[in-house]
Amino acid sequence: MKKVVKFGGSSLASAEQFRKVGEIVLADADRRYVVPSAPGKRYSSDTKVTDMLYQCYAAAEAGENEKYTELLNKIKERYLEIINGLGLNLSLEEEFQKIGTFFSEKAGKDYAASRGEYLNGIVMANYLGYEFIDAAEVIFFDKEGKFDADRTNQVLSERLAGQERAVIPGFYGSSVDGTIKTFSRGGSDITGSIVARAVKADLYENWTDVSGFLVADPHIIQDPKSIKLITYKELRELSYMGATVLHEDAIFPVRKAGIPINIRNTNQPEEEGTMIVQSTCRQAEYTITGIAGKKGFVAVNIEKDMMNSEIGFGRKVLEAFESQGISFEHVPSGIDTMSVFVHQEEFEGREQAVLSAIHRTAEPDMIELESDLALIAVVGRSMKSNRGVAARIFAALAHVNINIKMIDQGSSELNIIIGVKNSDFEGAIKAIYDIFVESQL
């Protein structure tokens, strides 16, 4: 069996955390390829090394030499603390000299940010006794700055075919001209997924500071239940609506290759975490898999008699939003009504231009705006085989006097989207969680 393991910044913030990671990796001979992040926060008021590097580079770029030197020394101290704490015979002085040279030559923010993962990769490889492979040599971006999946997969596959065990730092690669380029979001998670695809891994373990996905946001629900098994489709629905354990860009490479992901907790390695799979015949533990949502939407409600018989009406309405660069979230409709839900922040500055365009091209009888709305996604593969899910949602919200502004169900019956007032957001999630999870305990 072949496993790729990725560790987040909190898992590598100190020598103590490094030792936990080392024990996890060496406890399973199948954990052959390791993708580390840069050191994260050691405590709540601490600063991530990546943020320190940004600050250091900004000082170098501005010619603030004293501040630059002070920040660089603090970064050196972070790594020295880890190296000494692990008892390693390793010096990064030569690497820091190179960094100083590149900073003075204005190598760019991407280069600066990437050095956290790069240096941590060197430390990790030394600690584990694994081969170090610079991500810049095996992960590539094209001339437009987009990730070059085909070239990367070919080069990385060939390189790792000859390596039984290796450390590949996350977050960055190289552009066509050889300069360092970073992923915009979820960088190390994406790198881990790319490596898993390249080596045709049996499993991609993503180690972080939480024990997998939770059914609901712990800031809203106290001690919510964990999700043991979730499909990629369910995960995408929840991620899109605000669940943030794993960025959706990190899913695509392994999903395409049919490789499962296991979200695990570095600080509680005995827990199984959440397994993310392409498909499964196993029913979810509860009727729903998860609940997620976002605040800050506006509904543009449009009415016109005989709308349903007017060919092209919907297109005309949506083109009004498109012309202003606004994407829509949901478009529930009736015989003579149509509502378009959009992000309020995006819409507010361009609302009159959109409304004018709708009046001009679609000639509606009436347009009404309803602002300060929230959208909640109730997601679950088991919903399709359970009757009365929508009715139970209605009942739960009615019980706590929350009015539903919109309800929309996808054709896959994988999710139900509910619109409520922003002020009812937390209460709605609690009510839905209680009826589908707490009542089943």
Layout: helices, strands, pairs:
Elements: E1 3-7, H1 15-26, E2 31-36, H2 49-61, H3 65-86, H4 93-104, H5 109-128, E3 131-132, H6 149-161, E4 166-167, E5 172-174, E6 180-182, H7 187-198, E7 203-208, E8 229-231, H8 232-240, H9 252-257, E9 261-265, E10 274-277, E11 290-303, H10 313-322, E12 328-330, E13 337-343, H11 344-348, H12 351-362, E14 366-379, H13 389-399, E15 406-409, E16 415-421, H14 425-436
Parallel strand pairs: 1-2, 1-7, 2-4, 3-4, 7-9, 8-10
Antiparallel strand pairs: 5-6, 9-10, 11-13, 11-14, 12-13, 14-16, 15-16
Helix pairs in contact: 1-3, 2-3, 2-5, 3-5, 4-5, 6-7, 10-12, 13-14
Walkthrough of the structure:
This protein is of the alpha/beta class. It is built from 14 helices and 16 strands. It is 38% helix and 20% strand.
- Amount of beta strand: 15-25%
The string of secondary-structure elements, in order, is EHEHHHHEHEEEHEEHHEEEHEEHHEHEEH
- Contiguous runs where pLDDT drops below 50 for at least 5 residues: none
Look at the structure and give the mean pLDDT: 92
Biggest sheet, spatial arrangement of strands: 3-4-2-1-7-9-10-8
Helix percent band: 25-40%
Number of strands: 16
The largest β sheet comes out as: 8 strands, mixed
